[in-house]
Structure formats: structure tokens, C-alpha cells
Amino acid sequence: MSAPLAQTVLLAARNLLRQRRRALLALATVCGGVVAYLLAGGFIHWIFQDMRESTIHSQLGHIQITRPGYFREGLGDPYSYLLPADATAASEAGGGVRTVAPRLAFSGLVSKGDDTVSFVGEGIDPAREAPITRAITIVAGRDLTDSGPDAVLLGEGLAANLGAAPGDLVVLLATTADGGINAVELEVAGLFATITKAYDDTVLRAPIEIARRLMRVEGATSWVVLLDDTEATGRTASALANRLPPDAFEIIPWSDLADFYNKTVELFSRQVGVVRILIALIVVLSISNTLSMAVIERTSEIGTSMAIGVRRRGILGLFLWEGALLGVAGGVIGVALGYLCGALVSAIGIPMPPPPGMARGYVGQIAISPALALDAFLLAFVTTLVASIFPAWKASRMNIVDALRHQR
Questions:
Q1: What's the confidence (pLDDT) of residue 178?
Q2: Which band of pLDDT confidence, cut at 50, 70 and 90, is reported for residue 312?
Q3: Residues 226, 273 share a domain
Q4: In 3D, which of 208, 257, 187 has the Cα closest to residue 84?
Q5: Are 250 and 237 in contact (CB under 8 A)?
Q6: What is the pLDDT of residues 293-311, one digit of tens each?
């Protein structure tokens, strides 16, 4: 930093300290805005993280591999898009792949006594699916990994509609791939719940061998890939696309299938944007008012400075530096307080009621990422700098004679 610039910064800091109460009030406004933005943004960021991981570890995995066009055209006739039963080709994509699990989609009617409802089924390999389904909660009974081969896991809502409980026998009736009718009798091993109530109301999960026997097919409709790190999804998807023939396999990241998650992110991101705008307006008005009062009080001083040779751009720069110093101090202190408040709130927890589309409430937390902290600091710095432009310009455009006569 050059000597003249260092002198200007030092003078700006001294000018702020001349009116300590006003400077502290302006600083408190900036800090309060930063803390409020961090807490609101941190809560939304935690929701995104929790929803993302819950969606991945209850339904989608990180990557799904299908035949080309399966999700666009094959849902009505899934067995025309069957993959091989062996998913070894996907597991050799490189490091970071935790498991690859085959799935077979099927649907039909499930009956218990005189009650019959429709279902959407997933035939799974319980052992390979175990790492993927850590976000699935077994609310009653046991998981398929602890059950016999002729067991089924019912969604909580589906079981309620059917009146089924763990230990009951149910019959699955389905139209086979060749157009025939087939049925199997299974024992309800347990009931499960996920973050999506609509999923729990319609889905059951059975061992993939049961699903193949019921539908009289071999193979799988999809291979579900789980990674060690969600951030590696794009890189691994590209590696799989380069390894597998594009005319035989389609690589689909989880984000392309998570429609509810994507819409939630879009909605909440807009809400955070509105909060950012409101905080920016409050800071701009507060800092602009503080510096405008400083300009009025120091009119004679400004006139004297220009009379002894200080250029107008020097006066302009002095007041801009005062605003910048307020922004830097407010940003740093606000970010530190935001991290502290976020940790305290997360330790206590935020009890939340069930949101739309979910059956259970949850305990929220504050997750402040480095990117969010940087955004909060820049919010403080940029808004205070913008707020100081008009008072600084006003001070630099004063008439020297009128300024010297001020209050005389």
C-alpha cells in the first residue's frame, strides 16, 4: 500500500472514531444484516443438503444406468428396456464407487384378506441396496436384509391403506411381461418411511428374485450406483459414459431425476434472494444516512481541506474509504458472529413441523458454507461501498466558499 493511500485509510478510520456512537450504530446494522443473512441462508443450505442426501440414500442413488430412453418412453413397457442382471460393468468405473445395485421395476395389485390396493414395486438386492437406503426408516418390523427370501417391505402409507402389519401375509398380483397373470404370497417383513409421503403411499420393496419370478423376466430395469462423495457425481457419470457404449446404456445423474428437490431448491433460492435484497436495502439506507450526517457536520472541514489544496477526488476517496472500512469491519464481525450463532442454534436444534409432501417433522440446523460466508461478507462490503457513493460525491462537489461559510 502506497504512503498516500495508507494515509487516506488511516484518516478515514480516525474520522469514523470521531463519532463512536454513530459508527457503532452503523456497524451494528451491518453486523445484524450479515448475521440474519447467514442464519437464514444457513438454514436453507442445511435443508438443501439434508434433502439431497435423503433423496439419494432413500430412492435414487447418485447415478442410475438404464437402457437409452427408459425414463422417457419405457415406463409403459419397462421389460423392453432390460439390462443384464450382472452390474459388474458399472462397478468398474473407477474409485469412489461404493456399490452398484440392480433394480427391477414392477407394478400390480397387493391383497390382504378382502382389501386390495394398487402398488408400485421395486425388486432389489437387499445386500447391495443396504448402503443406498440408509435414509429409509424402518418404522415397524425388520429390513429385508434380516428376512427370508419370501418377504416384502411395505411403505407406511401403503400398509395403512391395506391394513397390513409386520408378520401378515399378502398376495402380489401382476401382469407378466408376456401378458399373463401371476401371483406370489409373501410375508410382510416390515414397514418403511422416507422423506416423501407420496412414495411411501404407493411403493413396496421385494427381493429382486421375487420380482423376476413374479414378472417372469430376467435382468434389471436399472443399475443404481452409490458413490463415496456426492460431489463426484458429475465426474463419475462422465467416466461411465466414456466406458459404456452410448447406444446400449444411458447414464443419468440423480439431479436429473429429483424433480421435487429441484423445484424446492429453486423456490428457496428465490426466497434467499429476497432476504438478500431486503438486507442490502437496510444497510444502504443506514450507511448512507450515517455518512450524509458526517458530511453535513464536516462541511467547514471539507471546505478548509479543499482550500489548502486537497483535490475533489481526494475528498471523494476519503468518504468512500470510510464506507469501505465500515463494510469490512461489519462483514468480518458479522461472519464471526454468524458462525457462532449458527453453531449455538444447531446445538439446540430447530423443531420443524412436517412440510408439504412429508409425513414427519424434523429438527433443523444451520449449515454455513464457506461460499455463503463469502457471499455475506461481500454483501456487507458492497452495500456499504454503494451507500457511501452519494455522500462522497456530495462532499466532493461542494463549493469551497459556501463550505467555508457554513454555520458562520
A1: 85
A2: confident
A3: no
A4: 208
A5: no
A6: 877 777 777 777 778 777 8
Is residue 330 within 8 A of residue 27, CB to CB? The reply is yes
Q: Specify if 254 maps to a domain.
A: no
The domain boundary residue, chosen from 191, 215, 248: 248
SS3 190: strand
pLDDT at 210: 93
Q: What cell does 287 get?
A: 450507511
Q: Are residues 79 and 159 in the same domain?
A: yes
| Single pTM value for the model | 0.79
With respect to residue 389, please indicate whether it lies within any of the assigned structural domains.
Answer: yes
Q: Are residues 225 and 295 in the same domain?
A: no
Residue 278 scores a pLDDT above 70: yes
E strands within 30-128?
63-66, 97-112, 115-124
Q: Are 209 and 127 in contact (CB under 8 A)?
A: no
Q: Are 169 and 186 in contact (CB under 8 A)?
A: yes
Three-class SS state of 54: helix
Same domain, 100 and 209: yes
**Residue 26 and residue 156 in one domain:** no
Q: What is the spatial distance between Cα 379 and Cα 327, in angstroms, rounded to a whole number?
A: 9
Q: What share of the chain is helix, strand, coil (3-state, %, to 5)?
A: 55, 20, 25
Question: Whose grid coordinates read 421435487?
Answer: 260
Residue 407 pLDDT > 60, yes or no? no
Q: What is the DSSP string of 131-182?
A: TTTTT-EEEEE--GGGS-SSEEEEEHHHHHHHT--TT-EEEEEEE-TTS-EE
Cβ pair 170, 159 in contact under 8 A = no
> CB of 185 within 8 A of CB of 169?
yes
Count of structural domains, the chain: 2
> Cα separations (Å) of 207 from 58, 101, 125, 148, 187?
16, 12, 6, 9, 12
For 366-399, how does the pLDDT look when each residue is reduced to its tens digit (9 = 90+)? Answer: 999 999 999 999 999 999 988 888 888 887 777 7
Mean pLDDT throughout 223-243? 88
Which cell goes with 229? 462423495
Q: Is 96 exposed, middle or buried (0-12, 13-18, 19+ CB in 10 A)?
A: middle
Instruction: Give all strands (DSSP E) within 1-75, no chain letters.
Output: 63-66
Show the domain range for 394.
Answer: 3-55+261-404
φ, ψ (nearest 5 deg) of residue 302: -65, -45
Of 276, 275, 319, 278, nearest to 297 (Cα)?
319
